[in-house]
């Protein structure tokens, strides 16, 4: 770990975590995750065997993984507020919100606090996630947790939602193409979609020296994200290494448009366009936020 600079040594040979690794370390409680690592490593190693599975989904992971992920955002209220700002710039009103791949619901609960009025639907294909989410939200009135697959949402949801959120989900999906088709279908014509995903370069050479990607991105992706995105026949196999540039290329080539990109607090903007659809894109320290806006009279 010291040799790769994932852990550093000070002048008196004390070990410390370098500042550059802290965004990712702070993003998940690794002390809770450590007991899972042995179990998950064995599962991941099986995928390398000739006759082994190609991957595994969340419903095949230890149920504690869902709890760890649910606890990883120290302040989900602030995260939701950060997500909300650009959405409210372009949206007249929010009456229906969809949290896709909601896990045990930490973002859904924060959404409910921030938006007590709208109907919030939160879906995940993993039974354990939905059961945990339900047990944590007994006093939350406007969130419906449902077991659904992102790639085949209910037919009755066509053009139902003002805002669709995929928080740390897109790079996990074995079938991102059909998932984004479904997002497009369930969004109202003037709806907005936000995608929060790891901020890693697709050209892996460009990640050299990024301890955060090496120490946190690799560990989580190898055991969780990559196996999940390999968990069905014909799966995409992306994981965290898919990277922001390739993700953006996929989105734009399938008809979505990048409206702008910015780091929260440090704005960079690009403006490629297609009719009708726009994406606002926010790379954060470890997570990107990409916001697609179907907003016909957007300037
Ligand atoms: C990294 S977790 C993020 C969970 C939650 N959004 C959060 O931030 O805590 C990814 C989630 O996506 C869900 N997921 C993966 N593939 C899915 C699919 N095809 N349909 C619905 N949910 C899916 C997993 O079960 C898991 O809960």
UniProtKB/TrEMBL annotation:
Keyword Methyltransferase: yes
GO biological process: methylation
Keywords, comma-separated and alphabetical: Methyltransferase, Transferase
Domain Methyltransferase: 93-212
Single Gene Ontology MF annotation: methyltransferase activity
InterPro entries reported for this sequence: Methyltranfer_dom, SAM-binding_MTase, SAM-dependent_MTases_sf
Protein name as it appears in the record: Malonyl-[acyl-carrier protein] O-methyltransferase
């Amino acid at each position: 770990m010291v040799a790769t600079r994932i852990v550093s040594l000070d002048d008196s040979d004390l070990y410390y975590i370098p500042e550059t690794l802290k965004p990712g370390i702070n993003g998940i409680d690794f002390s809770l995750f450590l007991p899972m690592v042995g179990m998950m490593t064995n599962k991941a190693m099986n995928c390398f065997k000739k006759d082994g599975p190609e991957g595994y989904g969340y419903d095949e992971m230890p149920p504690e993984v869902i709890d760890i992920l649910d606890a990883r955002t120290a302040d989900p209220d602030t995260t939701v507020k950060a997500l909300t700002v650009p959405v409210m710039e372009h949206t007249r009103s929010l009456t229906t919100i969809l949290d896709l791949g909601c896990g045990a619901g930490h973002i859904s609960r924060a959404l409910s606090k921030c938006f007590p009025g709208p109907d919030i639907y939160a879906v995940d294909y993993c039974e354990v996630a939905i059961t945990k989410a339900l047990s944590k939200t007994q006093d939350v009135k406007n969130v419906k947790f449902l077991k659904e697959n992102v790639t085949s949402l209910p037919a009755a949801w066509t053009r139902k939602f003002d805002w669709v959120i995929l928080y740390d989900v897109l790079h996990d999906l074995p079938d991102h193409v059909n998932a984004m088709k479904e997002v497009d279908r369930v969004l109202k014509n003037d709806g907005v979609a936000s995608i929060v995903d790891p901020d890693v370069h697709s050209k892996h050479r460009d990640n050299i020296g990024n301890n955060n990607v090496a120490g946190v991105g690799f560990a989580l992706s190898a055991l969780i994200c990559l196996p999940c995105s390999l968990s069905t026949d014909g799966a995409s196999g992306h994981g965290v290494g898919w990277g922001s540039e390739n993700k953006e290329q996929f989105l734009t080539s399938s008809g979505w448009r990048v409206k702008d990109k910015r780091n929260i607090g440090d704005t960079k903007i690009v403006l490629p366009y297609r009719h009708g659809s726009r994406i606002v894109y926010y790379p954060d320290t470890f997570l990107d936020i990409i916001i697609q806006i179907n907003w016909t009279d957007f300037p």
